Here is the input.
Amino acid sequence: MAVGESVQLAPRDPEPDADYAWRVRSAPVASSLELVDDEAVVQFDPDAAGTYVLELDAPDGTHTLTIRVFPGSYLPAGSVRSGASGMSGMSGYSGQSGSARPTQVSGGASGSGSGAGEAQRGEGGRPRIRLDATVEDDVVVVRADPQPNPNSETDRDDLVVEFVVDDRDEVDETAVETDGWELRVPLSAIGDRLRVHAAAIDETYSVPDTVAVERDALTDGGVAEAEPDATGHTDGSGSEAASVSRPNDPPKWAQEVTLYEIYVRGYASDDDEADNTFEALEKRLDYLESLGVDCLWLTPVLQNDHAPHGYNIVDFYSIAEDLGTREDYEQFVEAAHDHGMKVLFDLVLNHSARDHPFFEDAYKNPDSDYYDWYEWQDNGEPGTYFDWEFIANFDHRNLDVRRYLLDAVDMWADVVDGFRCDMAWAVPDTFWQEIRDRVKAKDPEFLLLDETIPYIADFHEGMFDMHFDTTLYFTLRQVGRGDEPAERILDAIDQRSEVGFPDHAAFMLYLENHDETRYIVECGESEAMAAAGALFTLPGVPMVYGGQEIGQRGRRDALAWKHARDDIRDHYERLIEVRDETPALRYDGSFRRIDYEADSDRVVAFVRDHDEGSYLCALNFGDDPVTVDVGDLAVDATDIVSNESIAAEGGVRVDDVAICPLA
Here is the structure.
């Protein structure tokens, strides 16, 4: 983080009735910072650059937290760190009961220094970084791959890398060596686990990345010998084994899926024979399997204030009675698994409904045990956003609130495959970091998807695996309405790296959801067919909102199954199939711009590359076919969507979407 930012610090896995106290053990010479030492949750507002060492007295002992703070001039442009959302910097290990220890900055600067060297906030943007690790001759070798921002004039060789060893892990500090973009530590110098974080530094600093090394333990507590680990990483002689992982990579299964959002109170409401909503949804699984989707996001299923969307929750531990029972819900999840589908739970942690019994007890009653559970305005009304009148914001500074929500997280994480995190921007990032560590400790393949508008690059460090691509969403709307040329879609993809997202970040691509008007209504049918093509050809994970694939026009209405458009459904089914069969169109496929010409600015073309083949992708948002000239690019004019030749004089002829192999 940088001077001028703020972060909320709290004990992990808290005991609400226990005593906690924070203090500053050491700080930069220029700092006069003090913490409220009798508060369990405090706000850390650094007043000088350098390294701060904080201590937290807790029931299980004293924990140390080391925070590296850059000068305010290093603050990324557009960064907002206020203790809740929009937080930037090395937030993955600030606010944890353990801490992170700076070791050494490449280029000769000290990781525990004062951040010497004031720089003006650069216009070039944030650099990016990726870490990888191997075990060679009983030595853990961590290598950084820093990249300058696409808009920066900085040469890659001039980037500085700062490594940070996570001090929740046992390691002999004297054995850690850094040399430029590389860190080395003998296996014999670490305990069961070593986590290394690093950031690239230019005029500002990158979103940090992390690698983890686990020594393979024997049942008697020893260390396995002479056997490679599951990922094939061993030392050169095979004397000890260790597993290497990249915690910030999205789960492998989530990289390949097609997501499908179900608005639970409208999707199958035409089924009068089912005993409950979950049974009705279960009966639709064969249809969804035939469509080709792999992961289902259900809007909230918890007990609520009877608003049909379900986001105003009155009981975080119970399934809504109008939908069914917990047993019914779990049966639906099991049935989805039997159909090869994952299930996401819509997790709401910012607020409760005003009908929640805790809020009802607290409202206008400062003596209530639950009064401090909520944020309050000066007029006695609860804190909220956008004047929403039926919710009340939780106060996450209260340990009872954290305990209550963490217990709910634990309950539902045992049932589902991931969380879609509602209003992620409104919840303290250190709370998300704790949640991530909790769910990943049980299931490393558990997915965390954040709803943050606009997206925030720092949310990919220690918080979320996948992000709503809000920039692409708005761009597709502008293009569909004719307000922008189709080429702006390419700018939307480029913006990910320009704002600092690392290349390994995953994005959910969408045209609509339960909060938005249907794309086909706002933009038109031809535009909707092309936009569907964008979801399945651009880098990211496509999401289809239930009914989108049949031409549904109402946002939250009961689905008009009897009036389903077979032509639109066939279009989606084929696009899903093509993406599933074409590695270049998925997570591992790269994206590049090309030179092309067309008579309409409603057309855009680009290439997706992969070792197994490269493909020209072209989208036409206009009503009439357009010929796209790609110059000297060698293209097989067989469109793999239609399985027909689209060769035309001067190029290829595109109706809505075309995908052609490069020759």
About this structure: The chain has a mean pLDDT of 90. The domain at 590-661 is CATH 2.60.40 (Immunoglobulin-like). The chain is about 20% helix and 25% strand. The first strand starts at residue 7 and ends at 9.
